[in-house]
Amino acid sequence: MSRFSVIALVALVGGFVGSAGADTLDMRGTDSASRFEESGKPTRGMSQARVEANFGEPQTRVSPVGDPPITRWEYSNFVVFFEYDKVIHSVTKR
Question: Is residue 54 part of a domain?
């Protein structure tokens, strides 16, 4: 093996060894379902009856629009969007 081949081999192996490493990604606390439950807003899949039982009468009810029908209920701190009678999203007001 020539001297150039040995130097190239050592450089190649050294490059791989030098770049080996790993990081650990901490994903605790990123579960979106737990954030919704902790936020005090309705969660996805809740019925309109359950939302009203848990959070009371909304300040405003906006009639269904589109197909499938999307209904919006507005509360003082958040807005709830329903598809048919199930929650699809709830957002905090700014």
Answer: yes
pTM, whole model, 2 decimals? Answer: 0.59
Please give the residue range of the domain that contains residue 86. 40-94
Q: Is residue 73 part of a domain?
A: yes
pLDDT score, position 25:
73
Is residue 66 situated within a structural domain? Answer: yes
* Chain mean position to CA 39: 13
* DSSP letter assigned to residue 20: -
Question: What contacts 24+ positions apart, CB below 8 Å, involve 87-92?
Answer: 87/42, 87/43, 87/44, 87/45, 87/46, 87/47, 87/51, 88/44, 89/44, 90/36, 90/41, 90/42, 90/43, 91/41, 92/39, 92/41
Going by pLDDT thresholds of 50, 70 and 90, the confidence category of residue 77 is very high
Domains in the chain, number: 1
pLDDT at residue 36, as a whole number: 45
